[in-house]
Design goal:
This protein has 418 residues and is α/β, with parallel strands linked by helices. The protein folds into three domains: 215 residues, Periplasmic binding protein-like II (D-Maltodextrin-Binding Protein, domain 2), CATH 3.40.190.10; 97 residues, 3-Layer(aba) Sandwich (D-Maltodextrin-Binding Protein, domain 2), CATH 3.40.190.10; 89 residues, Sandwich (Immunoglobulin-like). The protein has 14 helices and 21 strands. Strands 2-1-3-10-4-11 form a six-stranded mixed β-sheet. Strands 7-6-8-5-9 form a five-stranded mixed β-sheet, sandwiched between helices. Strands 14-13-12-16-19 form a five-stranded mixed β-sheet. It starts with a helix and ends with a strand.
Amino acid sequence: MTRRRKAFRRGRVSAIVASALTALVLLGMAAGAPAQVRSVKATTVTVDTLPIANGLPLDLGIKHGFFAKQGITINKVTLQSGNDIVLALKGKHGDIGYIGWVPAFIARTQRIAITAVTQSEVEGTSAADNWQNILVKGSSSIRTPADLAGKSIAVNALKGVGEVVIKAALQKKGVNPNSIHLVALPFPSMRAALRNGQVDAIWTPEPFLSQALQQDGARSVMAPGPVLGKFWPNGGYVARSDWRKDNPALYEKFRKAIGQSLTYANTHPNEIRALLPASSQNIRLPVWSPTIDRAKLKKLAEYAKQYGVINALPNFSQLIPRNITGGKTLQAGVDGKSIRVLLDGKTLKALPEGQYTFVVTDRSSKQSFQLRGPGGVKRTTSVAGKGRVTWTLSLGPGTYTYKSGAKKSKLKGTFKVT
């Protein structure tokens, strides 16, 4: 076996997403329901995906006819890891695949020709709202990221995304990334390993994160993704490059339909939860966003190379064409005293024209968040309600105003799009 082949195998291309909800496979997740809208001349597209909650927007898109409206019938093939999906695409046993970005980098550097279609989901903004964190026992002396130096941390695979984001986040926090000891364990085994002292900490996603916090009394010490950046990119849909070249119109139609599906999933989280087993319906869901932040993906690739997961940077012009990038995920919110729109944690002043995802957190039952702007942009949360909503919008040139809809409120701000 060649060195590159070995590197590909040990890369565990499913590192970010492939095992996140492994238990759900045994519990039986709902498959995509038949499309409600029939197309006269439908073309079948085979999509290789994973049995995890992050991939469920595809099922909603099938159910609500977003693909049928584009003349597409989805042949959904569920595989158990991102590694399986990349190899399936290599063998032409699929047209589109849902994988993590690090697996996509590994595949591309191993000369497996894939091209991005769209982003799928991103991480949160802190340990409080993120869905994959580093946890320790409630009684642990580990209180801060600095306390992780010299400790053992369970990850689902060595030389995978867990290793990349953990080491990069520790380095950003001023901790020697080589001081930790990583232990490879399957996600379902991590809680027991933490409880019995086999490891000092675990890096785990949902549903295991909520189970550990709620049932085991575990504590979050660090959320590596949010340390690296707000709404850090996680997974996406990629196509075989030869398939895209032979089917350019079909590629664009799939892009449109999966984008609608991701946007719909954000605004209808209860429909996502309904597809999960009852015991896992209260987990933290990711933010789904079809917009690809090229700068963040390039940084993620640099981290992957720095920590030895890939030997060279992937060709970004081939993996992620510029015509499908440019968007970003924005953090917006309102409470009783302030209103804000943030980009990477800083107050937003200006943006280039394009598509953006707004994650709006309304923490006040007396205020609301309203967004108004050119092209008929008009969105609002409820004055009386609280919670999180997500809007994916195409913004054209002009000045956009955000304010509270409460009477006599002076909470207000603006940003420009050029």
